[in-house]
Structures are given as C-alpha cells and as structure tokens.
From TrEMBL:
It comes from Peromyscus maniculatus bairdii (Prairie deer mouse). It comes from the Eukaryota. One of its GO terms (biological process) is protein polyubiquitination. One of its GO terms (cellular component) is ubiquitin ligase complex. It is an enzyme of class 2 (transferase). E3 ubiquitin-protein ligase which accepts ubiquitin from specific E2 ubiquitin-conjugating enzymes, and transfers it to substrates, generally promoting their degradation by the proteasome. Independently of its E3 ubiquitin-protein ligase activity, acts as an inhibitor of CPSF3 endonuclease activity by blocking CPSF3 active site. One of its GO terms (molecular function) is ribonuclease inhibitor activity. The gene is Ube3d. It catalyses: S-ubiquitinyl-[E2 ubiquitin-conjugating enzyme]-L-cysteine + [acceptor protein]-L-lysine = [E2 ubiquitin-conjugating enzyme]-L-cysteine + N(6)-ubiquitinyl-[acceptor protein]-L-lysine. This is E3 ubiquitin-protein ligase E3D. The lineage of its organism: Eukaryota, Metazoa, Chordata, Craniata, Vertebrata.
Amino acid sequence: MAVAAAKTRLFLEVRRRLQSALLILSEPDEGGMHLDVSITPTSLLMRTPDGCTETQLPAEVRLAPSSCGGLKYITGDGLHLRLQAHTDSSPQLISVFNQSLQAQECCTFYCQSCGEVTIKDRKLLRVLPLPSENWSALVGEWCCHPDPFANKPLHPRENDCFIGDSFFLVNLRSDLEQEPKANTKVICKRCKVMLGETISSETTKFYMTEIIIQPSERSFPNIPRSQFVQSVIAQCLVELSSARSTFRFTIQGQDGKVYILLWILNSDSLVIEPLRSSGCVKKFPLLEDTSEADSGSAWNAIKVLYQPCIKSRNEELASTWESDISVHPLTLPSATCLELLLILSRSNASLPLSLRQMNSFQVAFLKM
C-alpha cells in the first residue's frame, strides 16, 4: 500500500454494545511509501522503512483479526475496515459529583480554573438530588386539591447541597459578610471567571463546569480545563438521557441564549487516535492538540451530533427545538458554552473526513 509514512494516521472506534470496531488509515497529503499493517487481538502495528508505530489496546478490549471485512478505500479519507471487538460490558457510570459529595464530610469548593477556594471546610449533612425542573407543574396535575408546594421553592439549609442537572445549590448565608442580591453573578476573586449566581439572599447556584468539590483533607486536583469540561458535560448528558429518555439538548447560556444544538448518538464508544512516530513508540493522543496529547491511554467517549447557533446560525432549527418538549435544555455560563463549542469543533476537525458530517449535523466526541 503506497502511503506517506510521516503523515499516516490511524483512527479506531470500538463500540462496546455492538462488539464491533471501525479502523481507518487516513490518506497522506502527498508522496508515498510502503506501509504494512498488522492486527493482533491486543495491538495494531504500522511498519514503514523509517520505523513503526504500535498501538496497544486497553486490557478489556480484544480484536478478532479473522473477522476483518467491509474493506474499502475512500478518496481523500483513507482505508476503512470493520472487525469484531470483544469487550467487557460498558463501565458503570458513577457521577463524579456524588462521589465527591459524601454526606457528613467536610468539603472545600474550588474554582476549577485557578484553584481559588470558594467555600472552605463546609460540613455537608445532606446531599440530595433536585427533582426535574417542571416538578411543581407536575404536582399541580397530580393533586386533586390545591398544590401544597405552591410558591415554596426548594432552598438548601446551611449544611445542605442540592444537585441539579448542571449545578449545585448551597446556602452561603454564613459565608458572606453582607446579604447578597438575587440574580447576581458569583465571580471568582482570583481569575474573575463566573462560577454561578445567587438565587436568593441565602441560596447560591454553582455550575458544575466551574467548581470542583473535594473532601477538605484532599488537595486541589489540577485537571486541564478542556478535559474537565468534556467530562462534566458528557456525564450530565448521559445521566439526563438515561433518566429522561431524551437524546436531544439545547446548550444555552445563563442569559437564555441558545449556543449549541446537541444530539447524542451513542455513549459506548472507546476511541483511540495515535500519532505516527519514528521507532516503536506507543502513544494515544485522542482528539486533542498534539502538544497536549501524550496520555498513554484510550478514552471512553460519547458520540454526538451538533449544530452551532452563534452569529444567528440555525435560528429556525433552534426555535423548533426549543418548542419541542422532547428536547431538554442544559444551562451553563455563556463563556463555557463557547468553550464547549470550541471543544466540539476541534474534535470534529480531528476526525477522518468521512466521519465529520451526518446529514446536516457535524459529528464530535466528548471524553468521559
């Protein structure tokens, strides 16, 4: 096979539920050089006269080389083939929020962007999930007598933390020197990032994409911003789609403006995209800039379709989605909506050409 060694890229997506894998060897930009590809149950090996690149699969994944089929060449994209992949069952999704928020523990709230302490040594006696956003309307439908919860919003007490779709509600009355006004932004003192907003004189909403909550005896975990945002939003989407049987979402800012239309295709993907290197080097950069990608592992990811709605794009479709009760809104700070759009765009640009579009939507992966 005549391809350019230095420019050859390999893309592998394993679907856990389907027990299948898609392998793509991308087409070089120019020139040509002999390339041999070897597939074993546990690895992929690409050899050229200049060296080789070996990709070791995760321990829970085994390929079936004899099942290779569907071989085809797509101009401008590369060589495609499909094969069976034996994997363990999909890993159980355990929310990082529930893991971090254990009742009876003293917790510290940090700004995820810079590590500034927002709340220090708060003992949480109750960590409870909030009902769906339309819970009050549903109670009105179910009750044959006046709604006992009318005009009684759920507000946390001093040692409570209520968990919503994409936010935490906490009581900050004892932490503030003066009584805050409702509907005002909460800004990090150090880096000036918007962390949340006040709901009332006692209740503050912190967005999950902006805050890390750790037991006080642990230190602040320095997680790259892009990785953190992807993980939090991916988990929110998977949990919501499972709980509410919905797969379409509008990603909107705290001002109510829609930034992204997002549609979950699947949540069982394992994606590996190693770069070509001289010598038998094992690397697993995944949907990131090459300067950042040296993680040495594959990633579980959700596959999504998306449409940007900035600069008046897709206004008609966004309006249709907003009026559809099967579409769930997910609210984030406006700056984070733009961050997410950039993450999706980078992911899309890193995919083989044939995988970047589906109908009128763009395709991307979000790391779990």
